[in-house]
Amino acid sequence: MARKKGRKSRALTxxxxxxVPQVTGGPKVPPPAPTxxxxxxxxxxxxxxxxxxxxxxxxxxxxxxGRALPDVRDGLKPVHRRILYAMNExxxxxxxxxxxxxxxxxxxxxxxxxxxxxxVYDTLVRLAQDFSCRYPLVDGQxxxxxxxxDPAAAMRYTExxxxxxxxxxxxxxDKETVDFRPNYDESRQEPTVLPARLPxxxxxxxxxxxxxxxxxxxxxxxxxxxxxxxxxxxxPEIKVxxxxxxxxxxxxPTGGYILGKEGIRQxxxxxxxxxxxxxxxxxxxxxxxxxxxxxxxxxxxxxxxQLIESIANLVxxxxxxxITDLRDESDREGMRIVIEIGKHDNAEVILNQLYKHTQMRxxxxxxxxxxxxxxxxxLNLKGLLHYYIRHRExxxxxxxxxxxxxxxxxxxxxxxxxxAVNNLDRIIKTIRTSSTVDEARQxxxxxxxxxxxxxxxxxxxxxxxxxxxERKKIEQEYLEVIKxxxxxxxxxxxxxxxxxxxxxELLQAKAKFGDARRTEIIGKAQxxxxxxxxxxxxxxxxxxxxxxxxxxxxxTYRAQRRGGRGVTAAGTKEDDFMEQLFMASxxxxxxxxxxxxxLYWLKVYExxxxxxxxxxxxxxxxxxxxxxxxxxxxxPVKNFExxxxxxxxxxxxxxxSRLEEFSKPRAGGILALKLQKGDAVIGVEVTSGKEEVxxxxxxxxxxxxxxxxVREMGRTAxxxxxxxxSKDDEIIGMTVVHSVKNTFLTVTEHxxxxxxxxxxxxxxxxxxxxxxxxxxxxRTGLVVDVKEVVDDDELMVITAQGITLRTRVKDMKVxxxxxxxxxxxxxxxxxxVVAVARIAGKDEEEEEKK
Length: 850
Prior knowledge:
Distance between the termini: 93 Å
Structural class: alpha+beta
Strand content: 15-25%
């Protein structure tokens, strides 16, 4: 027997499908060498390497052809075909009662498929599962498993019969439309393929792993596939691109979404493609304003119970925050997974996290590989349709030939019966004068020139057929049979008529079994970023001394006059207080700089939203801070191009680096600045590289110098001296100067503040001792922060106890450098100002007037 070996080819066949690796050729067995001894005639010496090759190749071909891969014609593997044929032979039609699955399994095992009852029953179960098959071929009664991965009941408990659509596979099988072969013990015959009036390979798909190859064909919508076949029957030269417009893509039994069309297009053009599936989920809001994520459909072949468990594990391991409850409310009406979201958490962000970290988004690796004339081949969409049409053409042709042969035989008999009724008296006399049946038969043949079949038919006639009415029926039937013969011969003589019959039968099946798509095809995943789901709005972000962070809408704060009492910004513990407050857009990136010089990256919308009285969420749950470290500065960044990052430390060091060097931090953070012992980061600014910079100390000193005096350095550099500090002094703030016409706003811990013209601070060289910025006294307390402001800005001041004040900058008069300033906010004895934020924009009252 000739053996084949793997050979790759990328040439296209006339039908338009790409060629596939085939098995051809093979090693030759060397002739047996002569041996000595009494057993020489029974021993055949053989090279073990050659024997292994031959044995393995035989095994591989057996798996490829006889087990793992479907036939391109009926879309079935041998075990599926044998189950359906056995059930048909048992009479388990859709209109007949169910029978025990064990009986079906026994019939299949005993007569056709001796490979173990578990394999047969598992296949039978899958054919009955509506979440596994797009169009189930078996009508099951009992427990046939669930989408949660629950196993089916034992075969002695479940009952089955053929589904209505399965009969389309078996129609005309008794008309010699397909070849039969002996079963495994040659005790009976089994079909090599089923007639398959519908293209099951596409509508139900197939999956299998053979030796050195695998197939994974997704299920499709019956109506779309039939429409594509109809188009191809009308125009055999139709392009694959035109067929793709008809067959939109796979249609999975579990519904869900397919993301993008590129994977579908590649699959239909080349036979291989990656199809990204996504669960169908929506965000709902209850009467109390709490949001829920409702999952109603999941990707194909995803275990629902395991999916829910994976979500629970992500919540438990704190990889996803904001999920307060998770439950499965699925019932007979359909699937419903409910994921409750915290009141101040963003449901859209959490949904995208679920898509990223769970099987709510999964990939189907399609390989359109099937057996073509016993050879495995990867086919494109047109190739699959082409070979199915070729199969149906053969089936219809053989069926027509069978019907024609049957009609001609009947016409032959009717011709004999016509002779009999026209010569009735002579026929009766001939039969009566004959001594035996055989003599009568021979006499009829001789005198009336009849065939054996005609003579036997006359002998088999009943007396009632001799009536005048029955004679007319014979004449009428003969005329009808003659017309049938002419019709059948006309079909066989015209390929066009055969194709028309195929099309008509397909459209009839479509009308009977066609349904709407379950899987919706939407845009690519990358086409919709998370930011597309988030409203672009300004928010206030606060960070407490204990490391709690939250965001709030800017509208939370109402504008107040200078000297007001303020409103509560956060509910803090007795030993905690607010340290930082800044404004940002929800679409901005947040760069978190720790006191130890580490950088962490986060999106503003990922920070949980909280009410004014809430304390927020620990930063440690959002970024991985090192032990003993704390966030020193956080700045919003819209883009990382053509900008610089300026960092300042407590000991007066400054460093300038390109911002893009900080755009890709790792989960554990990256080093942003090398620090000497005891030093810490106190300020970070994004600049153009050509700005002026001002540093301020807690003892009321300040310095203004050009940013160009600081050379560009690498991400891990230490920096250079920005201001020479006196004993017991340290840097508390850094600001970038945008215009000398603006003013510096200085705020002290006891609630005092003042505005001073930027021009009052002459430019100095980097590293100088600076000038007096504010006269520090016991009444004012130490300086807390310095900001560059203009009249249209608003100011937000926050104290350690969480009291905030939002006031207009223009309400504060401009004073000289060496002054104490005026009271901005009344601070209790045990309280102190810890942070100041500038809000740019027009006055709110002016906006309301407009």
